[in-house]
């Protein structure tokens, strides 16, 4: 989630609020220590500064995230990207890479993306 928010070099308030809301309310984060959020964010931002940082980030994700949660992780990343109503090219590229790295089926990915877009539409 943090990586998608930072991918366009601008972390927007809507994206931060979306991340906070998800961490505070979704069952997948029930046992998550919120104090880790700042350290996690710093790690992600530091990795973005390194040449092979994205590869390292995906390695960390593969090491720590059970495969059964890959689609959940992709859905949360899509929600963050859609939360501010603007999808920058860099966000779209990172989402495509996440989809590839997590081996998300294209049809499932499209459904997840469409549902994120629908949840964040405005009048």
TrEMBL record:
InterPro entries linked to this entry: TerB-like
Protein name per its UniProtKB record: 2-dehydro-3-deoxyphosphooctonate aldolase
Organism in which the protein naturally occurs: Brevirhabdus pacifica
